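Bug #77: duplicate submission created two jobs. Keeping one. Sequence:
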Amino acid sequence: MELEEAATERALASSGGGSSGVEPDRLSSLPDSLLHAIMSLLKARQAVQTCVLSTRWRHLWRSVPCLDVDHDEFRTAAGSAPNNHPAPNPDYSDSDLDSYEDSDDENNSISNNDREWEDFEDFTENLMHRCNISQLDSLRLHVNTSRAPNFADKQAGGWLRRAMKYCNPDPPRQCEGLSSGSWQLKRLYLCNVALDNRFAKHVSSVCHSLEELELEDCTCEIPAITSRSLKIMVLKNCRWRYLYEISSPTLKSLVIVGGSNTDDCVLVIVAPVIAHLCLDVPLRFARRLSVNQKQSLPRI
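Kept job's structure:
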């Protein structure tokens, strides 16, 4: 409480709230917890842009609990500038994450989609370096399949792998029952990301708080998804290679829509407390599914 009051006092001082004749910045005077809640409703690019509002806002985005990294955010910006991809610079400031004003015109022939992807690539790589993904409550990484290059899913998978490898959580939070290596991530949404078994192992061994997992249009070389914390799992139009097991003692809702799996692989679903199961998959996929379910599970 004292920390919040101190932050509020600093906000009033930096915004001129204590000087006569100056209207106080009431938004900036809110405590960090409320500002983070507001910023969590923004897309990642918008959240980063708040760093230019005032000194009070300069570093707030770094500790926002939810990140929504969306390729679609860059569609308008890419179409309105001739070539707006800054050169990589390890010494960039916070505002450089979203600065596209110092660009050259050497490659005017680059299509809007290519330019858009380069802007998104630069922003996301810098963002992943600046934010500790392991301390987030929610992460959404969305790549638009129709406008991304062919290698986009593999590159997005690389961003995620580096985050899993190098992002370290805080010291153990004993009051929450988490070990020193546990991520606090509760919700994870990935669209058009290439995933391998390293991702599955990370979910199983490190993401002990993960409750919601949604994968859409992902290419997955994952033999099994296991978790002791997952409650909701949604898999849409994913291309699987030898996925043979989905197992979670806490899973209550499982939705599999579309997608494909290796023809000679039988997928075994082990979820003893599941209450909602939706399987809208091709017949070839459906014939190779085995569900361990309770007798009380409604028929679909």
